[in-house]
Amino acid sequence: FKVCQTITRIPDIPAPVDEDTTTGEKFRSPVASALWLSRCIRPDLLRAVGVFASCIGHWSEAHSKAFHSFMGFIKYSQTMKLEFICKRTKDPEFRIQAHCDASLQEPRSISGVFAYLVDVRNPETFVPLMWQSKRQAIATASSTAAEFLAAGVAAGIVLRLDQTAKQIGLVKQD
Description:
Strand content: 15-25%
Low-confidence stretches: 1-21
C-alpha cells in the first residue's frame, strides 16, 4: 500500500458550547455515521470510532472535544487515498486468505478479521475484501479459546467470500 498524501497536522476544531455533558445522545447519530464510514470505506478509523461508540453511555466534555477533533481529521483527510500498487501477472490465479486475532478481555473478548484476495503466483499482490473488529458473542476463560472463536469467524467469512468469488468467476472451481 502507498499513502498518496501525508498528514502534516490535524486542525483543532472547537467543541460547541451548548453540548450535554452527561450523556452522548446528541452524538449517537454522528458516531453511528462514523461507524458506517469506518466499516465500509475507511478502515483506518475503526479503532477510534469503536472507542467513541463504547463511551456513548458516559459521555463527557472531553469526549465531545475529542470527537470534534476526530471529525476535523476526517474532513481534513478526505482527499487521502490508498493506492494498491502491484505487479501484474499475465494469468493471475486468485484465492481468498484471511488473518485473524483476538484479545482476551472481560467479560467478552474482541475478534479482528482481515480477508483479502491474493494472486498465488505473485503473493505480494493482494486486494482487501473485508475487515471486521467486534466483540465475541460468548465469554471465554482463556486466550486460546478466544483465538479459536476468532478463527471460526474468519473461516466462516472466507467460506462465504470464496463461494461468491467462485460464482462470479474470480476464483477457480476446485
